[in-house]
Every structure is written in C-alpha cells, then in structure tokens.
C-alpha cells in the first residue's frame, strides 16, 4: 500500500463522513469514535462494517470487538472492519496478531470539477421514477432479486440531493450511476455498465453527465470509491482526471 500522508487525515474524515451520508446504513451505533453500520436488507460490506474514525481510539479492543460482534451476529453478518487511514496502525497490528484476514482493497479518488471539460457533455436530467431506476440498476448490475428491497431502502434514505442517472439503448438499460450532491462534493455511487455493453463508452458518458449535473448545482469536487482490482474502472477514472486520495480495506476474523 502507498505511504499515507498524515496531513491528509482531515480530508479523509470529510470523505468518510460524506460517504456515510450518501450511502446510509439502516442501523448505526457508536462505540467511542467507532461507527458500527449494519443493514439487514443489503449485504454490502460498507453497509455492514465497523469504521474506526480516530487513530488514537484504540483502548479495550478485545471487549469492544466482542461487543460489536454480538451486533453482527444478531444481523447474521460476519464481523467486519472497514479500515481507512483513520483506523490507525495500532488496530491494524492487533487484527494482524489475531489472524484477521485482509481483503477488498479499495481506492478513494477525487477530481477538481473546475478542471474538467464538461461543456460538450450531454446534459442529462436525473430520473424521478425511483422504482424504474431501481429496476434498471438491478439489470445493469445483474443483482439477485433479493437485493431489490434493500437497495430501494438505501436510495430512498439518501438525505443529500441525489441524481439517478440511466443510459438506455433501444429502451434497454446499459449504464447507471447515482450522484450525491453534498455541499461542494459530488459523490458517485453504484456506477456500472451492463456486461454485454462494456467497452462502448457508456460508463464514461454516464459519469460525465452526473458530474455536469452536480457542477451546475455548485459541486466543486467529484469523488468515488472503487475496488483496486477493478482495473477497467480505474483506467476510466484516471483518464477522466480522477486521482487517488487514500485507500481502505476490510478485515474479518479467522473462521
């Protein structure tokens, strides 16, 4: 993992807080500065994880992890830490010592919207019909039908202004994205292109349309989260001008 600059911690805190608001869990508990997020209707790790938000908050780890684990067990979820730079070295060392696995390395990226040429980008009006958008997003992502109620609940619970973007070809959904406008930030979530339509520029089009919509509303910084193994998406975002800000990963106890 690249060396992290501690001076960026305030920026990390800002993006982490924006991420919580943009993709809300149905149940949130606090243990000190740990945010324990759980969502019965959706299995996504970021919605079902322990998120330490202060590198110095690392007392009584055994007791606190056991307490959090009981919450995860009640939800039928594996106890999972989401470790951003705010997790700190002490908790990471403890989890290493206890044999916790490390997986799903992800990258948080951002872009200065004033530096992006959006003048010739299609001005797309976000969808107002959430049910139709959810149906289309389910198709684009190839989600299991069981995900639909949870995804609908999450999208309807987003408090900042959000835009639901969909590209269609002959009335078939080919790409989708959710853009959350939060102050001067524009967060991109659930960006995807249908498997049979990749490589045709649909992802680029939907991302640029979403960013143009957000910039017209006053957003100055675009940001997103992407798995480090998703080389196609990383290549797209880098070509648009997104740059890495920090990384995070997940940890789970030995089975």
TrEMBL record:
Keywords: Acyltransferase, Transferase. Coiled coil: none annotated. InterPro entries: Acyl_CoA_acyltransferase (IPR016181), GNAT_dom (IPR000182), Rv0428c-like_C (IPR056935), YpeA/RimI_acetyltransf (IPR050680). Gene3D superfamilies: 3.40.630.30. GO terms for molecular function: acyltransferase activity, transferring groups other than amino-acyl groups. Residues 125-255 form the N-acetyltransferase domain. SUPFAM superfamilies: Acyl-CoA N-acyltransferases (Nat). This is Acetyltransferase (GNAT) family protein.
């Amino acid at each position: 993992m690249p060396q992290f600059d501690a001076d960026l911690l305030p920026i990390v805190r800002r993006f982490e807080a924006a991420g919580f608001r943009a993709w809300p869990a149905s149940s949130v508990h606090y243990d000190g500065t740990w945010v324990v997020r759980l969502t019965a209707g959706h299995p996504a790790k970021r919605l079902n994880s322990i998120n330490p938000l202060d590198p110095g908050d690392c007392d009584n780890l055994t007791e606190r992890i056991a307490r959090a684990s009981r919450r995860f067990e009640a939800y039928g979820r594996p106890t999972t830490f989401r470790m951003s730079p705010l997790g700190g070295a002490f908790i990471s060392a403890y989890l290493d010592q206890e044999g916790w696995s490390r997986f799903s390395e992800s990258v948080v990226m951002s872009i200065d919207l004033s530096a992006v040429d959006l003048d010739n980008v299609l001005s797309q009006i976000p969808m107002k019909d959430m049910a139709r958008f959810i149906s289309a997003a389910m198709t684009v992502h190839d989600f299991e039908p069981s995900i639909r109620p949870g995804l609908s609940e999450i999208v309807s619970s987003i408090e900042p202004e959000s835009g639901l973007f969909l590209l269609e070809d002959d009335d078939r959904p080919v790409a989708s994205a959710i853009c959350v406008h939060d102050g001067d930030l524009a967060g991109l979530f659930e960006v995807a292109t249908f498997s049979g339509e990749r490589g045709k520029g649909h992802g680029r089009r939907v991302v640029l349309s979403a960013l143009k919509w957000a910039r017209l509303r006053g957003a100055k910084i675009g940001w997103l989260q992407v798995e480090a193994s998703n080389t196609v998406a990383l290549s797209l975002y880098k070509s648009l001008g997104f740059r890495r800000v920090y990384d995070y990963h997940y940890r789970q106890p030995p089975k």
